Amino acid sequence: MRQPPFLPAVISPSQCRGLGFMPDTPTGTNEQAIIDVLTKRSNAQRQQIAKSFKAQFGKDLTENLKSELSGNFERLMVALMYPPYRYEAKEMHDAMEGLGTKEGVIIEILASRTKSQLQEIMKAYEEDFGSTLEEDIQADTRGYVERILVCLLQGSRDDISGFVDPALALQDAQDLYAAGEKIRGTDEMKFITILTTRSATHLMRVFQEYEKIANKSIEDSIRSETHGSLEEAVLTVVKCTWNLHSYFAERLYYALKGAGTRDRKLIRNIVSRSEIDLNLIKSQFKKMYRKTLSSMIAGDTSGDYKNALLTLVGSDP
Description:
single chain; Annexin V, domain 1
């Protein structure tokens, strides 16, 4: 769970009116009321609030947010109103829409979700966009990047039993070494096959065995043997295998670090993890970077956008 605790889902007509969208609200949009109502509830509660708003005023809450707000504050509030799997489906659809494909968004989502989560995302994608996620990925990507994304989409990496066969782990490590460091060039499909079909606990044993054989980490080998989006995809699988919370802490850190904020990445990762493991990510963030996530948000954002993010993130660990 996250901090602060969720407030009750039911809100009164006056609270609904306090969102600031009604014609008889003399002061216009009440941004603080929007923050207070929407960021302190769970997603399921927000869906109930949207139904209540529609019933009381005959208006769609999400559409009102889009028309009354602007910039990153609008993007954040609208993101909160999507059911989780529909939001992630939309993020991937947006990443493939128009010229160029933002492969990093697709890699992030596919490599960090469980098989059951991916199934729900695929279902939402097809319902909302009329095509399958696999079809659109195949149409928008090429080569080994397409192959690893499609393999990730199959969700074959879930760890059910936790059992690791030491002999198979050693064989996989030897196969990875033979496919990369040992030869001139790289057998990319060997890397893709092992990384997308083995469980997380198995792969951790493989990575340990690999380092003994190669005298270097699997991450260092990947960086020397691959490049571009394929390198990003393979490294993401490895990072999510080692420590999912460290992976998201790193994503959030680099969304905030340096000149300019990568706001879409920041919003997506906070919203999508807010009811899953954001507290654990915050703790890992502080351990890795010796500063809190909230302090970086406070220093890098402003106004209602900052206030809403800080309410979502909650108190420091």
